Amino acid sequence: MDFRHLGRSGLRVSEISYGNWITHGSQIEEDAALACVHAALEQGITTFDTADVYAGTRAEAVLGRALQGQRREGLEILTKVYWPTGPGPNDRGLSRKHIMESINGSLRRLQTDYVDLYQAHRYDYTTPLEETMEAFADVVRSGKALYIGVSEWRADQIREAYELARQLKIHLVSNQPQYSMLWRVIEAEVVPASEELGLGQIVFSPIAQGVLSGKYLPGQPPPAGSRATDEKSGANMIARFMTDEVLTTVQQLKPLAAQAGLSMAQLAIAWVLQNPNVSSAIVGATRPEQVADNVKAAGVKLDADLLKAIDEVVAPITERDPAKTQSPARP
User: Is 103 helix (H, G, I), strand (E, B) or coil?
Assistant: First the structure.
């Protein structure tokens, strides 16, 4: 496993990190989830990403149990706050109340005294950003988080938060966006702003929810048990890629993957890691062997001719509009 600095911070994260967005506590049984985490550890992954909202808080608890017995200093544990975790009006968003209550709940479920990175899971238009950043600063100063990050924020939002963080003398070091060959909306604005400010990207869905693995074929129903057939595992998110045009185009990547000596999934993960602003690519798994396969993308260098060939194949189906960042629309 190779490691990269998270932006310009001193924190190093594994090039490939393990995330449990749609698996732990929902799609697969706990024994399988634990096996996947242990496989990640065996493959050299040290960075683990979760969120309080995943599987209604169960994902954090599963990850906490899976990491018990590991040397805490040898791990980077990342979680997030924003989405509803309860029925009340204050059980969501980035208010001081919700942040303070959420970090305590996350630490309890993760069975740890601190997280390495605490991330604002989306931008909250209903709470003053000053209130949010001051609450994050207090979380950091209390020792409950070491660094602060955001997820799916737009460039202007990142700039404003960075300036407040600088004034508060805390470290805003990362953004967690969706990023893949098919979804490049961060490249025009978010990446340049992040490079300027010293933030790194921890990207999710580098395989486009599995579409870039090549297992979904045009004109054929999705394989039984795949993400596209399971409402609990993100079928709504993968739906935008499940067109014959996209699936036919993705099949054209197979000879390029073979040329590079990689599986389709490995090619997709290696591709996002070619971007120097990407600090880590998050992978998920329902089986340990998927983890072992994905990790082989670490340290892979794709040559310029191959990158150009990939661009030529996917150009007609690639989304690049920065307005498509998944931050909620302004009310």
Answer: helix
What's the distance, CA 329 to chain centroid?
20
CATH number for the domain that contains residue 191: 3.20.20.100
What is the DSSP code (8-state) at residue 73?
A: G
pLDDT tens column, 181-216: 999 999 999 999 999 999 999 999 999 989 999 888
Give the contacts of 23 (CB within 8 A, at least 6 positions apart).
Answer: 33, 36, 59, 233, 284, 285, 286
In a domain, 56, yes or no: yes
How many domains is the chain built from? 1
- % pLDDT > 70, the chain: 92
Phi, psi of 250 (to 5 degrees): -60, -35
Q: Is residue 62 part of a domain?
A: yes
The domain in which residue 77 lies consists of 3-324
Residue linked to tokens 């979804």: 183
Q: What 3-state DSSP class applies to 11?
A: coil
Bridge partners, residue 131, by sequence: none
Active site amino acids: 54
Domain-located, residue 329: no
Taking the whole predicted model, whether its pTM rises above 0.85 is answered as yes
Q: Is 308 a member of any domain?
A: yes
pLDDT tens, 27-38? 557 888 889 999
Distance CA 153, CA 324 (A): 11
Calpha distance 17→281 (Å, rounded): 6
Pairing outcome for strands 47-49 and 76-81: parallel
Instruction: Please tell me the distance from the alpha carbon of residue 310 to that of residue 305, in angstroms, as a whole number.
Output: 9
| Residues facing residue 77 across a β-bridge | 48
| pLDDT, greater one: 230 or 183 | 183
Here the tokens at position 236 are 């709504």
Report the DSSP beta bridge partners of residue 48: 18, 77
